[in-house]
Amino acid sequence: MKISKETVLYVADLARLNLSDEESERLSDEMGRILGYMEKLNSLDTSNVKAMEHVEPVSNVLREDIVEESFERDLILSNAPDEQDGAFRVPKVVE
Amino acid sequence: MDIRKLTIKTAAMALRKKEISPVELIEKFYERIDVTDETIGAYISLEKEKALEQAAKASSMIDDGSSLLAGIPMAVKDNMCTEGTKTTCGSRILGNFIPPYTATAVSRLGEAGAVMLGKLNMDEFAMGGSTENSYYRKTRNPWNTKMVPGGSSGGSAAAVASGQAIFTLGSDTGGSIRQPAAFCGVVGLKPTYGTVSRYGLVAFASSLDQIGPVTKTVEDSAIVLNAIAGRDKRDSTSIDTGINDYTQGINESPVGMKACIPVQYLSEGVAPEVRSKVQKAIEYYESIGVRCEETSLELADYAIAAYYIISSAEASSNLARYDGIKYGYRSNDFNSLLDLYKNSRSEGFGDEVKRRIMLGTYALSSGYYDAYYKKALKVRTLIKQEFDKLFDEYDFIIGPTAPTTAYPIGEKEGNPLEMYLGDVFTVSVNIAGLPAISVPCGLDSAGLPVGMQLIGRAHGERTILRAAHAYEMGNPFPIAEEVSHGL
User: Fold this and answer.
1) How far is CA B98 from the centre of its chain?
2) Is position A31 within any domain?
3) What is the pTM of this model?
4) Assigned domain for A17 exists
5) Whether B260 contacts B394, CB under 8 Å
6) Which structural domain range is residue A32 located in?
7) Contact, B436 vs B461, CB < 8 A?
8) Contacts of B193 in chain A (CB under 8 A)
């Protein structure tokens, strides 16, 4: 199977990754081989089979809506690469 | 006292009899780490001061006999959050991350009095089978330091095998506890999905991830599981299994149990020496009254393809959170928000992680979603159904944990698909959410450990623990003291 360099760059953009020329070339080859291997699934008939996201027999686990203490703002901000006035600082997003 | 030989059981006894104090015990383990870890490379960080403080507090719990784990030195894979202690996940992108909270599994061990020595090396974001993908260091196999320890919980297995901790926690998404346990000659247990809370475990593939113990003995494995299992309101996928004591019945004979061996698990793809050791183990089971029959798992051959689609898809979604804004690595080089995201992620993630994100994003992208992701989820249903059918008839499944023993460091570098194929016997267990244990079943002619995997039905931990324990009693395996000659 062949994955073109254009497809690799399109997927990288979706995934918010930059790839060097060398990386995108390597990935086009590797993804081609790996996805080619995965094609073996097509030999299984799954037309009447339900998809399973999860093995557990539970769903919609709810809890009481009770107010509880949350983390201290300063504690959370202590891991931020950049912060100002008690907020995460990012580059200008509105032109 | 040779601390390399200590198990939870024997160490707890020594502490109770005051043959050693908890503080002395912890100090001895740090001495051992000092001497060996430059070679082994199991630890990413150590927390000596905190550990000694904890040990001092363990005395009362040891005296009143309320917990076997009181004062026991252990260590944790670096993808479980530890409040105030750096949690890197083996990645540059979390290099400075100091979690504001502790993972439930780790805090439960703390409540039981266990003392955390430090955090253990791993493949970046638990992606890999050799611990060569860590941003920080390579871990070496204590049996032969030219060999990989397996992965992704390579630090967890190597630390136990070299006597640097009495037990450790690992995480298993597709074999990441069991395969390194097999390569390092220790016991590794992946519990049924939902048994152990994932709160505070850095997510890789949420529908597959499960935390479990790495230990020297099967009984120790059950003891640790007792402490970490149970419903947690912070993880809505954790469940109350109704099992209070995983050691219950562990000493009983498995006579009368029925086991099966899928022909696919002993096929030509398995190294002959691995095959013969597992066959010997099967003969042992027959000799103690377990009925062993050959069977077939037709879908065994499709598990890797389904697994790598599902796990990569979930990973690409889970790892979208690393954007250089709220925590983790941020690039210095950006002009816009999009630049910041892209540069931080591209500089922060290693090659294997990027590869999985790319595969997963591709499999989830418009036009490919049905052909890859949806298809894999349907195959997942079929794989689970095939296991369910076997467990209608059998109590457990026997096979090798991995097709080979440990291989040389660097051997599979640059060949991702070959690395993935090494997971052939472990991934289907995660796909179906089942429990499985790897126990050592001998050494190959190169002196490297072979691991046998026992798979149970959902919540059948006590069955496989009992069977594994019976094997271990009849076939004692050299623990740490014979390992790492010269270390």
Assistant:
1) 23
2) yes
3) 0.97
4) yes
5) yes
6) 5-43
7) no
8) 55-56
Contacts of A59 in chain B (CB under 8 A): none
Write down the ipTM of this complex. 0.96
- B162 catalytic residue (yes or no): no
Could you tell me where the beta strands, DSSP code E, fall in B208-344? 210-215, 258-262, 291-295
B17 is catalytic: no
Sign of the CA dihedral with A45 first, then A51, A53, and A57 last: negative
Selected for mutation to probe chain A from B358, B377, B386, B429 (highest A CB count within 10 Å) is: B358
How many CA atoms are closer than 13 Å to the CA of B120, on its beta-carbon side?
35
Return the closest-CA partner of residue B426 out of B436, B441, B439.
Answer: B436
Residue A53 falls inside a structural domain: no
- Establish whether B171 is a catalytic residue: no
Q: How many domains does chain A have?
A: 1
Q: What angle do CA B178, B206, B307 make, to 5 degrees?
A: 60
Neighbouring CB atoms inside 10 A of B481's CB total 11
What sign for the dihedral angle of Cα B461, B478, B452, B134? Answer: positive
What single DSSP character describes residue B206?
T
B399-419 tens-digit pLDDT: 999 999 999 999 998 899 999
Q: Residue A26 falls within a domain, yes or no? A: yes
Phi–psi pair at A48, nearest 5 degrees = -110, 25
Q: Do B77 and B160 meet the contact criterion of CB atoms below 8 Å apart?
A: no
Q: What is the pLDDT of residues B124-138, one digit of tens each?
A: 999 999 999 999 999
Angle, CA B51 vertex, CA B46 and CA B54 arms, to 5°: 160
Across the interface, which of A16, A27, A41 has its CB nearest the CB of B355? A27
Number of H helices, E strands in chain B: 15, 11
Which residue type occupies B480? Answer: A
Instruction: Write out pLDDT tens, residues B240-252.
Output: 999 999 999 999 9
What mean pLDDT do residues B288-315 have? 97
On whether the CB atoms of residues A36 and A1 are closer than 8 A, the answer is: yes
A53 Cβ under 8 Å from any chain B Cβ: yes
Position B91, amino acid: S
Contact B32, B163 (CB under 8 A): yes
CATH number for the domain that contains residue A18: 1.10.20
